[in-house]
Request: fold
Amino acid sequence: MALLIKNIKSLINTENKPVKWVAGSDMQKLNTIENAYLLIEKDIIVDFGKMSNLKINDFNGKTIDATGKMVFPSFCDSHTHLVYAGSREIEYGDKIRGLSYEEIAKRGGGILNSAKLLHNTSEESLYQQSLQRINEIIGFGTGAVEIKSGYGLNLEDELKMLRVIKRLKETTPVTIRSTFLGAHAVPAEYKGKQGEYVDLIINEMIPVIASEDLADYIDVFCDKGFFTVQETERMLMAGIKYGMRPKIHANELDFSGGIQVGVKYEALSVDHLEFTGDEEIQSLKNSETMPTLLPGAAFFLGMIDPPVRKMISAGLPVALASDYNPGSSPSGNMKFIMSLGTIKLRMLPEEVIHATTINGAYAMGISDTHGSIAKGKIANVFITKEIPTYDYMPYAYTSNLIEKVILNGKVIM
Ligand code: NIG
Ligand code: FE
Reply:
């Protein structure tokens, strides 16, 4: 079945020659086509262009008239923890009273709190809770999402999370990539024996997870108070041996060395990056690693912001992701992430559009099929309400401006 969207006020982020990412000053340039059409066959974008060039005789598919409206490629949210049990607003008051993320974690709150909740939740209930979040982000315009494990912290519960992610892959229309994050925190029973937990990840968890083909990528929280660079290297090498490319939680709490170790092991992305200096920027240059910023977490925790302008001036690409999780970013709204990118990080509207689409797609390993309007790519797009300009998207920061969602060529909302 074919789908034609016509009279599009502006078709956003079109691509004639495929690119793997958009970097440096190119992030300020955005290809758009005014008064455009977009033609989809089955789940693929087959054609697009100016209405004046539309030549279709006897079209017998479905037509949508998008007069006054814009069409965007769906958001690619390359970093989330959206499979979790319950919530953690119980820590919210402590946070507001002034306790830091690390202090809450030290008291057995934080990630360990979510691990306890997850342990006591059935796989079915975990799936249902996570499915609700997937449906929520579909409505926010997300068409692809990466989801991490890391609230299990033992083999059985990590498998529970990864199986839920697998089931979400099979039962929802969003494109999903899964990441094994056993090294998210040291579980309570390994307190003082962190090395033994690292051994468990390497010798037991990674081989079993790989044998069930449950993880596309491997992640480590390489930061002050969590895992060291040496431990990170050991776990990355073990994951790589089983075909899991790294994605790293790096430099959120300190200059942890996480960025450099990520680059060394050809991580797809290094994420957070609040603590990024000249040395870190230098190591990212000429690498295959996408610097990924999570402004929702910095905003929620009241942390410093990463030096994005410096990174883009140095010629780097930058992706933005939601970090949707119960502790540091309880929101998967990528349009709001665009707003935080512009307001807090001083990125331009064109830059945040690239950062949430094509660059996010790269950071989850799918930029050849997702992240822009290009012939042959998967037809994941959304149609906006009537809006005056694309700047209006990040500007109107709480308005829901998404009218229709199309995933795999089907109108689903
Ligand atoms: O990306 N930084 C580490 N992990 C998550 C937080 C997870 C949690 O607090 O539950 C993050 O911010
Ligand atoms: Fe995270």
Observations:
- DSSP finds 15 helices and 16 strands in the chain.
- Residues 75-362 form a domain with the TIM Barrel fold (CATH 3.20.20.140).
- The pocket of N-(iminomethyl)-L-glutamic acid (ligand 1) is lined by residues 81, 110-111, 114, 221, 249, 252, 297, 323, 325-328 (CB under 6 Å).
- The chain has two domains: 3-73+372-411, 75-362.
